Structure formats: C-alpha cells, structure tokens
Amino acid sequence: MHRFERHGLLSNRFYGLTLIELLVTLAILSILAAAALPYAELTVKRENEHELRAALREIRVAIDRFNEDWRSGIISHTSEGASEYGYPKRLDVLVSGVDSGDAKGTKRRYMRRIPTDPMAQQGVPVEEQWVLRSYQDDLDAGMWGGQDVYDVHTAYEGTAIDGTRYSEW
Questions:
Q1: What is the DSSP letter of 131?
Q2: pTM higher than 0.85 for the full model?
Q3: Which pairs from 77-84 meet CB under 8 Å and 24+ separation?
Q4: pLDDT tens-place values along the chain, 169 residues long
Q5: Alpha-carbon torsion (121, 122, 128, 133), positive or negative
Q6: Are the beta carbons of 75 and 100 closer than 8 angstroms?
Q7: Is residue 158 a contact partner of residue 120, using CB atoms and an 8 Å limit?
C-alpha cells in the first residue's frame, strides 16, 4: 500500500518544482550574485594593491641596500653598475649584481628577480612595467633621466581603493 493511500490522500500529482518556483529561485540567486560581484571585484583589487605595495617595497629596499653598500665601501665607487651618487645605473643591476671589490671577484646581488607589477598589462616585459626615477630627476619629472635608478613606481594610471593614484605610491 502506498503511503498516501493509508491516509486517504491518493493523488496523481507529480512532486517537483513548478515553473513559478524555479523563476523565484532564479530571481533570488541573481540578486545574490549581483550583490556578491562588486565584493569579489573589490577583493581582487585589494589583493592586487597588496601585491603592488609588496613589489614596490622589495625594489625600494634593494635600491636602498645597494646605496648603503656603496656608501660604506662594500661596492666600489668605480663599479660599472653604480652611478656617481651610489645608485644602480639600471634596475637589472640589482639582479645581475655588482663586483664587491674583494680579491675573490664575487658579486653582490640585491634581488633574485625583478618583481612583476600586478597592475601592468599582460605581455609587457617586467623591465618596462616600472617607471624609473633618477636621483637627479625632479619629483614630478615625466621622464627618466637615465643616470641611475633612485626610485620606481607603477606605470598604471588607475586610482586605488583609498582614492590615491597608483603612480603616486
């Protein structure tokens, strides 16, 4: 005996979802997705900003360590990789290294690799992702003077979550 026959509820009705129930469910899901999408985009943007800050910090710390070593004499003042002000002549010098000036001819390296800019377009070589500034350049100079690498910033012109421009970081 079927369980509905016991209660006198014999019915030919199919059990499942009606079209109205499906439409209501889809409407609720689309509202939830529309609310979650901006949050997901904000999370991705925040993560990229965190990566950008970490990359800038890594490069700037390497530049500062290079300059400290030059000032303290660990790097020769006549080294081909260093400018007359003690900064690396190119960004890749931090990776390839400079002669330490000892009898062994060892090189001092300051980074394993140049970090990628998370805001840069795909396919752009890592050396071209960063805007460089020389020690001699003005703070708001639009072009790199080319004498050395005193500072870096992203080439991306977007605005951060806090309202600042990424290129000003």
A1: E
A2: no
A3: 82/148, 83/135, 83/147, 83/148
A4: 555 555 555 555 667 778 888 899 999 999 888 887 888 888 899 999 999 999 999 999 999 999 999 999 888 888 889 999 999 999 999 999 998 766 677 889 999 999 999 998 888 888 889 999 999 888 777 788 889 999 999 988 889 989 999 988 8
A5: positive
A6: yes
A7: no
Q: What whole-number distance in Å separates Cα of residue 161 and Cα of residue 46?
A: 7
Helix (H, G, I), strand (E, B) or coil at 5: helix
In sequence order, what DSSP letters do the residues of 66-124 get, joined into one string? HHHHHHHTSS-TT-TTB-TTSSBSSTTHHHH-EE--STT--EE-S-SSPPP-TTSPTT-
How far apart are alpha carbons 2 and 107 in whole angstroms?
86
Vertex 50: Cα angle to 49 and 52 (nearest 5):
60
CB 161 within 8 A of CB 146: no
Instruction: Tell me the two tokens of residue 71.
Output: 């000032």
Nearest to 136 by CA among 146, 121, 125, 122: 146
Count how many Cα atoms sit within 13 Å of the Cα of residue 104 in the half-sphere of its side chain: 4
